[in-house]
Amino acid sequence: MRLGLIGLGRIGRFHAGILRGVPAVKSLVVTDLDAALTAQVSSELGVEAAASPEALLAADVDGVVIASSTATHGPLVLAAVAAGIPAFCEKPLATTAPGGASLVRELAGSDVPVQVGFQRRFDPGMAAVYDAVRRGELGWLHTVRSTTLDPAPPPQAYIAVSGGMYRDCGVHDFDILRWITGREVAEVYATGSNKGAAWFTEVGDVDTSGAILTFDDGTLGMVSNTRYNARGYDVRLEVHGSADSVAAGWEPRVPVRSVEPGGFAPAEQAHQFFMDRFADAYRLEFEAFTEVVAGTRPSPCTVTDALEAEWIAEACDRSAREHRPVALAEVRV
Ligand SMILES: NC(=O)c1ccc[n+]([C@@H]2O[C@H](COP(=O)([O-])OP(=O)(O)OC[C@H]3O[C@@H](n4cnc5c(N)ncnc54)[C@H](O)[C@@H]3O)[C@@H](O)[C@H]2O)c1
């Protein structure tokens, strides 16, 4: 099949390399607002270039991957769907959850599939946790814990427009916990702090955060995030139930060392960032997208799924700012 890719920044360029290696993708056409970047990626990878998203959507593509800046996601998804072209869109749907909700309303009734890029659902370890929970091996769940620790902060300019820690980083943890439990979050209680660069506070953000999620069946979720984890990119999922406990991410490249004699000793170089930690997951989510485009499976992460994770982020942001528990019903519009 022939796919288009819009946006060739940090993640888009990376996606271009992965898409070229997906067996079902026979041709790829790319575009970015930055024409020099489009020309560079197109010649580096030997793929076609289009002059604009409009030209790309008119170039006989079977599906399109949208990896441009967050504010462009809504308009580009709507343009693809209006042209009848299945779309893969990077998370989040919009810069705020109410913006995402308005996109979901505009897409209601359309039968053109849209898949959102919560790649952790395709991480082999996290998928194995999901399967163990679905097979009932854990009994009833009491505690689900998700950790995302970035090695170092992105530039201040990125943080300033990122929507803050919960929307930019924690949203992946919120999606995976909701997916694993199969439940909705009823209430959150979140807090954050800034002990690193002072500019986090200047742009209204934090560099470290924690959130407690209470699911509608009483399961408790714990989410831990930071921008300062010098040992590497640390993403772990730990799920505890009445019958058993399982974890994803405790493998040789986990960036933590045990000080216990004879304890767990990571043997290999720690994960550096999301590109190496989730290389398999990104490939698998695009393989899934080719099946969505081919019409052989439904979207594995719909806009409605994505919006739920974004409401949780919205509630955490309000909880941390107002120092109080916030019910999801309070933020949903
Ligand atoms: N799933 C993940 O793990 C993951 C990781 C990183 C980023 N993301 C998401 O991917 C998106 C891009 O992030 P990034 O870090 O690559 O940002 P970036 O700023 O590095 O790149 C964005 C690119 O989009 C281009 N662009 C902007 N408007 C455009 C338009 N109208 N048409 C074509 N190109 C346009 C810009 O020129 C730029 O090259 C963000 O929404 C981000 O949240 C997801």
Structure explained in plain terms:
The protein folds into 2 domains: 2-119 and 283-300, 3-Layer(aba) Sandwich (Rossmann fold); 121-278 and 309-331, 2-Layer Sandwich (Dihydrodipicolinate Reductase, domain 2). The protein is 39% helix and 21% strand. The chain has 13 helices and 13 strands. The strands form 2 sheets. It has a 7-stranded mixed beta sheet with strand order 12-11-7-10-9-8-13. Helix 1 links the parallel strand 1 (2-6) and strand 2. The longest helix has 20 residues, at 303-322.
Total count of helical runs of at least 4 residues: 13
Bound molecules: nicotinamide-adenine-dinucleotide
Overall structural class, as computed from helix and strand content, comes to alpha/beta
Q: What's the alpha carbon Rg, rounded to whole Å? A: 20 Å
C-alpha geometry: globular
Uncertain parts: none
Instruction: Spell out the CATH superfamily of the largest domain.
Output: Dihydrodipicolinate Reductase, domain 2
CATH architecture of the largest domain: 2-Layer Sandwich
Strand content: 15-25%
CATH topology of the largest domain: Dihydrodipicolinate Reductase, domain 2
Topology pattern, helix = H, strand = E: EHEHEHEHEHEHEHHEHEEEEHHHEH
Query: Total strand count, please?
Result: 13
Q: How many separate domains make up the residues?
A: 2
Provide the residue-averaged pLDDT. Answer: 96
CATH class of the largest domain: Alpha Beta
> Roughly how much helix do the residues carry, as a percent range?
25-40%
Gap between N and C termini: 39 Å
Largest sheet: 7 strands, mixed
Q: Output the strand order for the largest sheet.
A: 12-11-7-10-9-8-13
